[in-house]
Amino acid sequence: MKHLFRAFFLTAAVLTAACTPRERTLVILSTNDMHAKIQRFPQLAAAVEACRDTAQLVVLVDAGDRWTGNAFVDKVSVPGKPMIELMNRLGYDVMTFGNHEFDHGQAFLGRMVDSISAEIVCANCISDTCTFPQVAPYAVIERDGIRIGFVGAVTNYEGPGHPAGHASSFVGLEFPDPQAEAIRYAEYLRPRVDLLVLLSHMGDDRDMELLGKTQLFDLAIGGHTHVQLDTLVNGTLLTQSGKNLQNVGATTVRMRGRKVESIDYRIVPLDACEPDASFAEQVAGYYADPELNRFIGKFAVQPDKTGLANWMARAIAEDAGADIGVYHVGGVRLDSIAAGDVSRARVYDLEPFGTKVATLRMTPGQMRRMIIAKYNEDTREGHRVDIILSTPYTILVDESDLAFDVRFHALREERVYTLAMSDYIYKNYKELEYADGSVTDVEVADVLIDRLRSGSPLRPDNVPHQQVLVVTDR
After folding, report:
1. Which pLDDT score, from 0 to 100, does residue 153 have?
2. Which CATH fold would you assign to the domain 294-470?
3. What percent helix, strand, coil does the chain show, rounded to 5?
């Protein structure tokens, strides 16, 4: 009898173990806002391969803005191609669009989509043009029987109605509410997958808004705002890994059978990774461009972001023979340039968009309305000094941070001034009233290159000439 009970309990234990769902670990590696920093790819490749060598299941994803920000990617014969070749080689699985994917126009992006081996998902990008193929709103990939759903979403808040960029890049495309579309497809996918991931290029503030409305997602991987983020919102983990391939995000998902047991996230600094030699050799080939590497001038001291903005505004004004130069902070893509020799590539890194100079005539009253409207926008460019003029001014704001006046320190109200500005401001900013406006064929980057050639060594003005003053006794 004793032997019978022992056999019974042994058999029961074996059956119980066989019926218990097995544990598996999935690692989702994520990048966002790489901005063509291919010089960091050897470190990224080393980190990804190390993870694949040690983890059971690995998925590699990107949350948008893969190019614009490196001349050796943006100024080659096929812009963006080095980035695509590197990402294809590394084996990305899923990606969504960022706003900068559209910088070279939708026809160009349509050709690039055909060259990308990863699944591209975006729930709120609708195309009826033959030059730009409709991408899927979501993708489902499988790892060892685990079904992982990815829903993509891209910002439409800055356009307005489309991602930040020239309106001409989006003709024929529609960008409905990204939050509503993401939730709609999440509702469809939730019963069909074991793990549901939002792959978003809306920014952490908009991601938080979305996650506050739903608990459908297990994980949200974000981009657009260039922050490092690891937080819970309404029970869902929201992450972002910064910018410029400084880091890679690593999300560890522990599964028991088809059920999520836990999700953890950490940011892995890529400086700690020894570069992969094979990827380093490939990247070195992209950088062997003598024309882009050629020095064209020098700075006597290091310009910071303010100094670069001041220089850009004054340079286009001088080149156009205008009274005032106008630039915007978002168009200044470097935080500084080291003192000393400056290459052509460095100028293109500073101004990578092919921006042209527009000229027009405005009164101080019209400039005032433009500046107030921009400051009061409910966007990331609002409630800060965004418009840089080559003449000083002060924005007056009330206690609720709403601008109500602008004081110009060197302008006369009765005069009409000639302005030179980036065509991005000219085509996209609100409350822009002017006379005799037109876009020239002159590119801002060419103006800056000419200034470096003819005026070096340049001594930049790093003093901010635009201020905000809070007025409490209106």
Report:
1. 98
2. 5'-nucleotidase;  domain 2 (3.90.780)
3. 35, 30, 35
Element holding 277 (H helix, E strand): helix 277-287
Q: Which two tokens stand for residue 331?
A: 């168009």
- Any residues with CB less than 8 A from the CB of 459 and at least 6 apart, and which? 299, 300, 301
Cα separation, 373 vs 270, whole angstroms: 40
**Residues sharing a CB contact under 8 Å with residue 217, sequence separation 6 or more, in sequence order:** 151, 186, 196, 197, 198, 211, 236
CA distances from 38 to 145, 279, 280 (A): 34, 10, 9
Instruction: Give the residue from 47, 78, 175, 193 showing the smallest Cα distance to 123.
Output: 175
Q: What six digits make up the tokens of 34?
A: 């790489």
Predicted local confidence at residue 1, as pLDDT? 44
- pLDDT at position 216 is 98
Whole-number pLDDT of residue 20: 60
CATH 3.40.50.300 fits 21-285, yes or no: no
Cα–Cα dist 389/425, whole Å: 12
Q: For the chain, give every domain's residue range.
A: 21-285, 294-470
Torsion angles phi and psi, residue 458, rounded to 5: -85, 145
Amino acid at 10: L
- Concatenate the DSSP letters of all residues of 370-399 into one string: HHHHHHT-SSTTSSS--EEESS-EEEEE-T
Is the C-alpha dihedral spanning 109, 111, 115, 121 positive or negative? positive
pTM here? 0.85
- Kindly report the backbone phi and psi dihedral angles of residue 305, in degrees, each rounded to the nearest multiple of 5, phi listed first: -60, -40
pLDDT beneath 50, residues of the chain: 1-19
3-class DSSP string for 137-169: CEEEEEECCEEEEEEEEECCCCCCCCCCCCHHH
Residues 6+ apart with CB under 8 A from 204: 222, 225, 227, 229, 238, 240
Taking only the tens place, the pLDDT of each residue in 418-436 is 999 999 999 989 889 999 9
